[in-house]
Amino acid sequence: MLVKVNFSLDEVKFNSDGLVPAIVQDVTTGKVLMLGYMNREALEKTIETGRTWFWSRSRQKLWNKGETSGNYHEVRAISLDCDNDTLLVEVVPHGPTCHTGNYSCFYRREDNEFTNSSIITEVYNVILDRKEKMPEGSYVAKKMKEGLDRILKKIGEEAGEFIIAVKNGDEKEIIYELGDLIFHSLLVLGYLDIPVSKLYEELRSRRK
Known about the structure:
This protein is α/β, with parallel strands linked by helices and 208 residues long.
């Protein structure tokens, strides 16, 4: 996929170390995922490959996000700020961004709340992670092994339970059953490797 860029590389003001800070943002949720540093080569490789590349100040070498974990960024656009010394990199994350397994490196909040649709993205990313690693005792791994038909059967059951909850008029039960229905629907997307961003794009198109 072509990366949209609104500047030329000669416009970028790299610091005395030859680096420029790069803010990485989830293009779907608007949530900041991480802050990294790019030199000219890392920026060029990010634009060319459509994946995020950075310069590691501790290891003094280039590194590609996801090269070891598999949790990579699909880059959609890169913008340069008004002072030409900071980049905004808009991405579709495939898997958690933080090395701790969290959706974002900025996960430390006392209320542990999430904004917009980021919690859905995080749950989906966890599903992808469980699908890849298939850890023992994981519900997601179990369902992936059972196959698509069993997951679809579960969705049918959850849809029925949601309808009953609505008919009963119990708000707590309605929310709980809807959560089950959404979760198992996300399982289907994960099973079929359909990015959750496509769901957001579809909903946005309906809003118009």
